[in-house]
Amino acid sequence: MAIKVHGHPYSPPTKRVLLALSEKGLDYEFVPVDMTSGQHKKEPFISINPFGQVPAFEDGDLKLFESRAITRYIAYAYADKGTPLFDQDPKKVAITSVWLEVEALKFDVPGSKLSFEILIKPVMGRTPDEGAVEQAQGELAKVLDVYEARLSKSKYLGGDSFTLVDLHHVPIVHNMMKTKVKAVFDARPHVSAWAADILARPAWAKVVAKLS
Ligand SMILES: N[C@@H](CCC(=O)N[C@@H](CS)C(=O)NCC(=O)O)C(=O)O
């Protein structure tokens, strides 16, 4: 049975899942969720994600939510296809796990906030909260100082090759490059080179083209 991703084209977690599928070269059906009418808060959507958030995912009879859990499933279930997205060696797995946590708990908090304030609110006809933007930008800068040190020693955050860690960052980094927050990346040469590298992946270009 076909893979289905229920999501929204503006949603970074939705794009995270689409990028994992794209890196694996898998066919899938993108099912747009009308969030303005609250489709994500009603059945049948909430039978897949009871928290009423996009994305939701189906692969045959398997139904999942939480974008990072979905990408892990894709990486493991389709390990023999497309780009390898995780390591086998236990020590490398452990290091990758550290940076997966860092992305979810430290990078994504200010990153998603900035994305929402600067890019999504104006689309909704709302005004960005400049105080919240300043605060989130300061938090992100501190995270990127740590990334700069890490990326001066290894090409990617998890190690020498592109993994789920880097993949999880792509949608928010893409959004930040369209805003004044780009300067925070540009001020850190290793971070800037890493951002350019991960955004140049052909699999990401396919996701952007599919959603535009
Ligand atoms: N941790 C979740 C976050 C999902 C999420 O925040 N989705 C947003 C769109 S980007 C959403 O559905 N917001 C609507 C709501 O929370 O009611 C994931 O990674 O899948």
Notes on the structure:
This protein has 2 domains: 3-84, Glutaredoxin (3-Layer(aba) Sandwich), CATH 3.40.30.10; 90-204, Glutathione S-transferase Yfyf (Class Pi), Chain A, domain 2, CATH 1.20.1050. 56% of the residues lie in helices and 8% in strands. The protein has helices at 12-23, 67-77, 90-123, 130-151, 164-176, 182-186, 189-199, 202-211; strands at 3-7, 29-32, 56-59, 62-65. A 4-stranded mixed β-sheet has the order 2-1-3-4, covered by helices on one side. Strand 1 (3-7), helix 1 (12-23) and strand 2 (29-32) form a beta-alpha-beta unit. The longest helix has 34 residues, at 90-123. 37% of the residues are buried. The site of glutathione (GSH) has 11 residues, from helix 1 and helix 2.
Write the layout of secondary structure elements.
Elements lengths: L2 E5 L4 H12 L5 E4 L23 E4 L2 E4 L1 H11 L12 H34 L6 H22 L12 H13 L5 H5 L2 H11 L2 H10 L1
Parallel strand pairs: 1-2
Antiparallel strand pairs: 1-3, 3-4
Helix pairs in contact: 1-2, 1-5, 1-8, 3-4, 3-5, 4-7
The structure holds glutathione.
